[in-house]
Amino acid sequence: MKKVAVIGCGWLGLPLALELKSKGYEVYGYARRHEVQELLVANQITVLPLPTSLDKIELAISTLTPPKSEVDQMVHIQIAQAAHEHQLSQLIYTSSISVYPDIDAVLSEEDNDPAHPISKLEELYMSQFSQATMLRLGGLYGGERHPAKYLSGRANVAKPLAPTNLVSRERVIESILKCIELGIQSEIINIVDKDHPTRLSYYTEVCNAMGIVPPSFEESEEKGKLISTKKMKQLLHL
Length: 238
Description:
Layout: E1 3-7, H1 13-22, E2 26-30, H2 34-42, E3 46-47, E4 59-62, H3 70-85, E5 90-96, E6 106-107, H4 117-128, E7 133-137, E8 139-141, H5 147-151, E9 166-168, H6 169-182, E10 188-191, H7 199-210, E11 226-227, H8 230-236
Helix pairs in contact: 3-4
């Protein structure tokens, strides 16, 4: 039975930890909030005292958000260093497609902006722990969370013809499980939905289905980035 640590048991990390538990993994979880720690204990998930407490762990998944301070930055560094020190078989970090410039092009894993803070964070992980894998997630939705709620009723929303690059929480969890199952190491992989409808068609349809006011869009022919899923299909068979 593999010992897996989920570092950051929030909107994504907690359901991930529960799914790993249901699959038979011995799961350890790190969360700052006391109520989440109680949920972990109630589900027979061992609470890690620190995000770097990896001495009993075989693989770790970090879902922590990008650093907003030097203290946050140090936590990310220490996680990667701990993975190296304890010789983990895998370290997965849930990164973001915001590393890509918003241009009218199909963008693959090689097209990121190296000066972007997210790109630098990925470099930090991979320089400290060479086996680390970065999963660049699209715009997240699932459960009660959906970007359509934030756009509802807004006027003059930009780029109506730009493709959407979203991904469901379920698809992210499935992708992480695939990475573990296949022993994926030292990779950068885009994780987004296969379909990319335009912002206009997608958000109009979703808002109508939710019974909320759709946004109105500016009149523009300008498009935007479309994130390639080729590598996701090749490596993860998704």
